[in-house]
Amino acid sequence: MNPRLRERFDRVVEEVLAQMPPLVHEALQQVPLHVEDYPAAEVMKEFGLKYRDELCGLHQGVPITKKSIEDPCRLPDTVTLYREGILAQARDRQGRIRKARLREEIRITLLHELGHQHGLDEEQLRQLGYG
Prior knowledge:
Blueprint: H1 3-19, H2 22-30, E1 33-36, H3 41-47, E2 57-60, E3 78-82, H4 83-90, H5 99-117, H6 122-128
Parallel strand pairs: 1-3
Antiparallel strand pairs: 2-3
Helix pairs in contact: 1-5, 4-5
């Protein structure tokens, strides 16, 4: 992978984050955000994925609506954005990626995964425009 392409993607993620409202920043203080190029083999197997660019993001952990002080100790929740999946979603029919479309896909994916953190399911996220 070309490091310059990854650096450009990371800069766009930072730009998107800078435009997010304070509530999103508060949510990100509760759950670390990771950016990976693509899902690990275990994640692909768990979700039945055939191609690395099929998944744009992933919330791992227990939604805050289901947490209890009686729960056993767990690893911290995380939100991961997958670069290859987001780039695939951002491509137009000619295979081009416009920066505005890339920013929108990053924003949608981030809000989608934070929605899972807050207990929303896929149907609820679709109804909100993040599915």
